[in-house]
Amino acid sequence: METLTRLVPKSGARIFARVDSGIVVELIQEYDNIDDEWHGDFMTNCVDVTDAAPPVEVGWVPQGDGTFAAPPPYVPPPADQMFAALAAGLAITSTVTPALDATYSGTGDRWDAMVHVMTYINAFSAFPGGLSTYDWVALSGTVTFPTTDDFKAVSRAVGDWRAAWQRFVDGIDVTPPAGDATIP
Questions:
Q1: What pTM did the predictor assign?
Q2: What's the domain range around 157?
Q3: Do 90 and 153 lie in a common domain?
Q4: Which of the chain's termini has less CB crowding within 10 Å, N or C?
């Protein structure tokens, strides 16, 4: 019967970072002598990082002077940022009607419903169903709109915010819009 031997790194074993396409993709620890353990062609892409402080990690970037830096934080593409923001909603504060203060969705069924109600208001100058006020389920709770002008102000703020996000996604604006707005 064969006996399996578990390799245990020697005391003081060196650590090497394998770099591919300008990024550390793997850390390798020698067991006895790295030159006997790995082919020389493989080792041409490896750098001894045994004494690096702080210790090098996978994903780090060589700086060209023997040091390594953590990668920059991940920044999602603009379209992903927009979808996340629209789902999180726009926090609206009204300086005249505090009852409208809420976070309103900028996407999906809630946005579609807002557009449909706005279409009705624009066509008939009234809330749908002859209602004198209009209850709306915002992301932060139910809001009661006292007037069609209040609904228009909120809808416009959300619509302007969506348009600003699209300008950012299209590269027209260089910074994304804020997630809050103030209306009268």
A1: 0.71
A2: 78-183
A3: yes
A4: N
